Description:
Mean pLDDT is 78; it is low at 262-278. With 301 residues, the chain is mostly helical. The radius of gyration is 35 Å and the shape is elongated. Helix content is 50%, strand content 10%. The longest helix has 29 residues, at 33-61.
Amino acid sequence: MTDFDLAKVKWKASAAAIEERLAGRESLFDEDPEIAVHLDVLFAKYEVRDQVIRVREARAAGRDLVSVDLASATTTLSRSLGPELVANHFYESLGFGEIFRSAGLRMKDPPLAKAVILARSVHPGSDLATHRYLAGSSSLPELTGFGPVGKDRIYDIADRLYEAKNRIEPELAARANRLFGDESRLFLFDLTNTCLEGQAQGNDLAAYGHSQEKRYDCALVALALLVDDRGLPIFADIYEGNAAEPKALPKVLDRIKAKSHPPHHRDGSRHRHQGQHRTAQEARARLHRHRTGQPGIIVSR
Length: 301
């Protein structure tokens, strides 16, 4: 139970002293001070261990154990919670309610609107996928406080948010800058596309072009994203399916300049292009500098 750092000649006297203490007898002779110190430590540890043993025995006596076959164990109504809590924290920190009010957006069902935004954050997908996630996999109904809803309500919320996108986006980017620090640079502009199943009639943006998914049989829409050097999105937009960076980039730069879109530049913005011929990259870098007055970076690969 403990180490005795005693000379061998004192071992016999130590053993006798231990027997006296265990028997509860007082020694007729004064104990050797060195032996007494070691015995005090020994019995203190003994008492603690004895208490631990008694507690364990009491717990064991009160147990009601049942054997469980782990291979047959199943769960029902399991829902995701951790990612939703993180997303909810940033939803509140960014003040989405105030953003909606400043954008003049009045939601009929604010809890559902919040749930749709959080669901898209932690489980990106279509409106239908969002409805399925909320109905069957997520704890957001309990977290935000809305009841069962049909998928049409999800579609309506998503449409209303998109209609107010140009009013929500700048305010959201500005609040993100204040939350994470306002020193950032324009860093990456990327353009991709996705295919549309069916004929896409009535969709003014649908067009045939170079499909990233190799779906040359389908009409496309192009998706543009601009992020800062922290990876935070500044804005996203949708363009014609046959749009390429030479067409989309000037519109993006004009929009940044016209709307004083965050982020605030430090010693110049950085504009990164991927997968382009060097001559084209240089032309875009010159265009970026001309439109914004900020230098850019060319990345070749």
